[in-house]
Amino acid sequence: MAEGDSNSQTLSPALAERLRISEIFCSIQGESRSAGWPTVFVRLTGCPLRCTWCDTEYAFHGGGWRSIDDIVQEVATHKTHHVCVTGGEPLAQKRCLTLLQRLCDAGHEVSLETSGALDVSQVDPRVIKVVDLKAPGSGEHKRNRWQNIPSLAPSDQIKFVLADRADYDWANAVLTEHKLHERCEVLYSPVHGSLAPRELAEWILADHLPVRMQMQLHKLLWGDVPGH
Ligand SMILES: C[S@@+](CC[C@H](N)C(=O)[O-])C[C@H]1O[C@@H](n2cnc3c(N)ncnc32)[C@H](O)[C@@H]1O
Ligand SMILES: Nc1nc2[nH]cc(C(=O)O)c2c(=O)[nH]1
Ligand code: SF4
Ligand SMILES: [Mg+2]
């Protein structure tokens, strides 16, 4: 039996606390309100979605099983205050909730990048949740879990990643219908290489939208390469 696939009742507590990890690396946070901070990224393997434009398909499979103790220790070696838990879809592994708690207990400012397709209500309230609402251009808009919206605090963020004008119009309709900007910060980001950032900026200004534009800073710095 592959390590980590077995029934957790038969494992010692340390082994039962394992997560499948694609990579742990230190970079400049490129997304969300925390953009610019030196940050350690913990990328969990696996995702039940298949966004057409996903830049992290390499995290759908592979990686290795790591204990939560081991992950927290490796994060500490990078000496950063900020930690970002991402994937793949981090919440697809239930023990992600424990990892988030443990990283907060260790004194880090922890953010979670999540697709918005899974329940976020059990995430430690100290964690900053960055929750995507998938637009039609992703091919995964039917997976949006609208019940997540009431779980979001003012310190969380909702993110729309937009491939074209049709996605932008869809996001505006959702923004208005759910009054999202009254709940937390709302981010509009272009799909890298698909929607010209300047075009999105001009639409936001023309429409006087109460949203925050963002671009993936790490791709400006390093291009579209893993490990950054
Ligand atoms: C790779 S995902 C991992 C976390 C989670 N599965 C999710 O979708 O939020 C992290 C962030 O990268 C964004 N992203 C992925 N591919 C992108 C692309 N080609 N252009 C812009 N943002 C992208 C996602 O929308 C998400 O906000
Ligand atoms: N530098 C950098 N910042 C990021 N912020 C969110 C990322 C992600 O893949 O979730 C990411 C990433 O992959 N790299
Ligand atoms: S949910 Fe996130 S990791 Fe999964 S396919 Fe979409 S962008 Fe990629
Ligand atoms: Mg990324």
Automatic annotation (TrEMBL):
Pathway: Purine metabolism; 7-cyano-7-deazaguanine biosynthesis
Keywords tagged on the record: 4Fe-4S, Iron, Iron-sulfur, Lyase, Magnesium, Metal-binding, Queuosine biosynthesis, S-adenosyl-L-methionine
Protein EC: 4.3.99.3
Example of a GO biological process term: tRNA queuosine(34) biosynthetic process
Catalytic activity: 6-carboxy-5,6,7,8-tetrahydropterin + H(+) = 7-carboxy-7-carbaguanine + NH4(+)
Binding residues annotated for S-adenosyl-L-methionine, in chain numbering: 53-55, 88
Function: Catalyzes the complex heterocyclic radical-mediated conversion of 6-carboxy-5,6,7,8-tetrahydropterin (CPH4) to 7-carboxy-7-deazaguanine (CDG), a step common to the biosynthetic pathways of all 7-deazapurine-containing compounds.
UniProt xrefs under HAMAP family: QueE
Subunit structure as annotated in this protein's UniProt entry: Homodimer.
Family: Belongs to the radical SAM superfamily. 7-carboxy-7-deazaguanine synthase family.
Stated name of the protein: 7-carboxy-7-deazaguanine synthase
Organism for this UniProt entry: Pseudolysobacter antarcticus
Gene: queE
